[in-house]
Design goal:
heterodimer; A: mainly beta; seven-stranded mixed sheet; four-stranded antiparallel sheet; 0% helix; 52% strand; globular; B: mainly beta; six-stranded mixed sheet; five-stranded antiparallel sheet; 11 strands
Chain lengths: 118, 112
């Protein structure tokens, strides 16, 4: 089946630094990718919709200058957490929609990335 | 708005059936999904159902959809310890964005 890969799976960074998380669709093209954040024992919160070749659409309450999203190709979207703080520590998950498929079962999720800011 | 609600916790014995329930509010959802999340991992799509269906069966999984009551359920037959995980239902947001709206998640604990 289709695979979405995230990298890194775990990252620890110092407070004030920036960290980049990559989301790749390995065997399909995705014009749209989604970035979610998940706090421990909670559901997924959609942060933004990443559109290939255009600006991302951010959900209400999500700081676009803090969470930079770039979707430069049909197989890669990146999320950069700028000037990270401990409260940004979380599990970040991306998903991608298969351009070639219909709606039904064509939204695939990455394995997630654990970010710890110390 | 779109709110998808689930009970937080379910405990069953190995070999029994598990039923995880979900209620949603957006009656225009075309597809509804069930995802499984094991500790520290991403989401695995288990199954999905189109809104014009009442039931879908896939091996040990049975999905029931009651559109009138906006109620979705996932039944796992012969539950195994490997089924222990958090289960999320999700619906597609109205419009062409294909954004998924997730439920609150149900932690399934399977006792040996």
């Amino acid at each position: 089946g289709a695979v979405v890969s995230q990298h890194p799976s775990r990252v620890i960074c110092k407070s004030g630094t920036s960290v980049k998380i990559e989301c790749r669709s390995l065997d399909f093209q995705a014009t749209t990718m989604f970035w979610y954040r998940q706090f421990p024992k909670q559901s997924l919160m959609l942060m933004a919709t990443s559109n290939e070749g255009s600006k991302a659409t951010y959900e209400q309450g999500v700081e676009k200058d803090k969470f930079l999203i770039n979707h430069a190709s049909l197989t890669l979207s990146t999320l950069t957490v700028t000037s990270a703080h401990p409260e940004d520590s979380s599990f970040y998950i991306c998903s991608a929609r298969d351009l070639a498929g219909g709606i039904g079962n064509t939204i695939y999720f990455g394995e997630g990335s654990w970010l710890t800011v110390v | 708005g779109e709110d998808v609600e689930q009970s937080l916790f379910l405990s069953v014995r190995e070999g029994d059936s598990s039923v995880i329930n979900c209620t949603y509010t957006d009656s225009s959802s075309t597809y509804l999904y069930w995802y499984k999340q094991e500790p520290g991992a991403g989401l695995q799509l288990l199954t999905y159902i189109f809104s014009n269906m009442d039931m879908k069966q896939d091996q040990r999984l049975t999905v029931l959809l009651n559109k009138k009551d906006k109620h979705l359920s996932l039944r796992i037959a012969d539950t195994q310890t490997g089924d222990s995980a958090i289960y999320f239902c999700a619906e597609i947001e109205r419009g062409a964005t294909n954004k998924l709206i997730f439920g609150t998640g149900t932690l399934l604990a399977v006792q040996p």
